[in-house]
Design a protein that fits this description.
The structure is a single chain. With 84 residues, the protein is an alpha+beta fold. The protein is 63% helix and 18% strand. The protein folds into two domains: 37 residues, 3-Layer(aba) Sandwich (YefM-like fold), CATH 3.40.1620.10; 43 residues, no CATH class.
Length: 84
C-alpha cells in the first residue's frame, strides 16, 4: 500500500485517484497516517462485508435469545460500577 503526504495528495489528486483503482493509499499529515483513500468499489465491498457480519450477529442473537430488560439493566449498572 502506497503512502503519500497530504500536500502530495492535494497537488496530484488526479494521479492518485487513478492509483486507488489498484490499491488503497494511506495519506499522512505531519508524518502520521490520517486517512486512507480507496476506490468506491472497495468501499462498497467493505460495506457489504460489514453488513453481512452484523446480519450474522443479529441472527445469532435471535437464535440465542435476547436479554430481558432486567438483565440489560443489571449489565449496564455493573459496567458503570467497573468504570468508576
Amino acid at each position: 500500500m502506497k503512502t503519500v503526504s497530504a500536500t502530495e495528495m492535494k497537488n496530484r489528486l488526479g494521479v492518485y485517484l487513478q492509483m486507488i483503482m489498484a490499491e488503497p493509499i494511506i495519506v499522512e499529515k505531519a508524518h502520521r497516517p490520517v486517512a486512507v483513500l480507496l476506490s468506491k468499489e472497495e468501499y462498497e465491498r467493505l460495506t457489504k462485508l460489514e453488513d453481512a457480519y452484523w446480519g450474522e450477529k443479529a441472527k445469532a442473537a435471535e437464535t440465542e435469545g435476547y436479554l430481558t430488560d432486567a438483565e440489560t439493566r443489571d449489565f449496564v449498572e455493573a459496567s458503570i460500577r467497573v468504570e468508576a
